[in-house]
Design goal:
The complex is a heterodimer.
Chain A: H1 8-32, H2 47-68, H3 89-109, H4 111-125, H5 131-152
Chain B: H1 2-15, H2 18-36, H3 42-53, H4 58-83, H5 92-103, H6 107-140, H7 145-162, H8 167-182, E1 184-185, E2 192-193, H9 207-226, H10 245-267, H11 274-287, H12 300-323, H13 329-339, H14 349-352, H15 354-385, H16 390-407, H17 412-430, H18 436-458, H19 470-498
Antiparallel strand pairs in B: 1-2
Classes of the chains: A mainly alpha, B mainly alpha.
Amino acid sequence: MILKKVTKHGKSELAFASSLFLLGIFVAWDTSRMDIPQGSSIVSPQTFPYIVAAFTSLIGLGLILDLLRGNHGTPDGDESGAPLIPVNYRTLLIVAAAIGLHVILLQTAGYIVAATICFFGVSYGFGSRKYAKDFLVSLIFAVIVYFSFTKGLNINLPSGLFEGMLSNGK
Amino acid sequence: MGNSFSMLIDGFQTAFTATNLMFGLLGTFLGTLVGVLPGIGPALAIGLLLPICLTVNPTSALIMFAAIYYGAMYGGSTTSILLNTPGESGSVITALEGNKMAKAGRAGAALATAAIGSFVAGTIATLLLAFGAPVMADVALTIQPAGYLALIILAFTTVGTLLGSSRIRGLVALAVGLVIGLVGADLQSGALRLTFGNMAAIDGIETVTVIVAIFALGEALYLASRHQIIDMSVLKMSGKAWMTKEDFKRSWKPWLRGTAIGFPLGVIPAGGSEVPTFLSYGVEKALSKNKDEFGKGAIEGVAGPEAANNANAAGVLVPMLALGLPTSATAAVVLVAFQSFNIQPGPMLFQTNPEVVWGLIASLFIGNTLLLVLNLPLIRFWVLLLKVPSHYLYAGITTFALLGAYALNNSTFDLQVALAVGVLGFLFRRFGVPITPLIIGVILGPLAELQFKRALQISQGDWHILIAGGFPKFIYSLLILVIIGPLIWNFKKKFSLKK
């Protein structure tokens, strides 16, 4: 079978290439059901997206072919042909979760909470285990950023849980 | 020419007000600060600082950006020499010889030749920029939409295929960038694309969010996935950052040659600072009398590429200002910075906003000088920054990037986009897909569509207009050369190897 030539890394890359191919089809599908406002000009707003869709799928196919021929991408920072460093899903997910929590918590819990959790989470993901010190550093970072942005630069950040408490000073 | 000169004098008057000087100084400081931090290149540095800069007036803010632009490059070379972790592709070569020099106890000389070389190259290249960009803008005024489209397609091809090791992967990045650029309402008809009923997506995806997320979040996720405890052992620097007479003798020619290589390759879209720094390194190695020193810390190998890198950075500003076409990630962010003040770089810029553009060019000179004066004595201070533990460093970069993504529009949607683009950045790095073509695609995609539509409107829908006329034909011939040239080159190499 043709897939035999492809390594495990190549297989996940094959999934990446296939999703690029599908992305092109998806863009074409979205373009086909586009609502075109009345009185559009000579060039339809669909023309350019169709070109992009075709290009994307074509490049996706090209990448699939490249992979099937046994070539695969060299991870950033590695020498070409160097042994592959396996993905450490645990640390990857910790950092991704820290970023995700920031996104989710910002509006409800406020900037200070979200940023403290994110900072702490990323430094945990990067291997730091001095919990008390890390927490303190995270909190101080978040507080300094919060006040220098809201008071110093007049850029509003959500106060969240501390609503009222922090806005008194203004 | 005479006109450019008097405009430049006016520019200096703009730049020399107390407020603008202060912003310039602040910019050099911030630029060097973030440039020194490993993992932050100039593009990310400006992207991160953009929300802060939006609170001041356009001229001061752009002067600050100019200072950050050069400052981040100075800072970057310090990091590559002392830490061997280049923050951006342009410093990879510097790390090669510079780090070896530092290991041999010659860190001071390496830092000095990098700083002085950057100053010399930056000053010459900024002069060329000041006189070249208006000329190019004048010529560009005569370019028709079809010609513009041809230029954009040329930029797509060079950036997409010349960067990185694999052509198909460069084009992958370009394709994804073009798709991201499609999101939102079509400028002319208002038709919605890829928005899925999300109101926040109608205005499209913020380019700054994409840049900040793909560099900062993508890098953090990628490094986490490799779970390497990054070796942050900073090399000690003994003595002052200065060079001997002998060092000077060996450095000045490489500085000038580096400038001569870097500037033109920045003006034509040759795809970022990798090619010129690499070329300069090759030239110095070929010309040097001390060939055996290369690979062990030859000063020419730092002086040439560093000068080429800085001259290239100024060269990239020529098409960015005169045509509105960015060809590197950093130029792309500067373009976005202009746009966020509703100033559109391009042929008209020199007429519509002369005070801004000449103030900017003048402050490039000032910033460059300030950097030389500030950095050589302050290098010890910057080195201290390298001692920040890497887990705090990446925690700080990540959190600050999210802040930047949010603060631009106070929008949670932007944050969600940032998370998604961060994951994309991780996948790109994992599969060896370069980042810059994506950014160029996001920025130039909508512009390509605009010129495409304008051309077809002029011709009443006749597609032949796209290749009619001398200029588009010339550009497309260049394009064919860019595509076929390397193929023949490779074929020849294979052929001679077989023999």
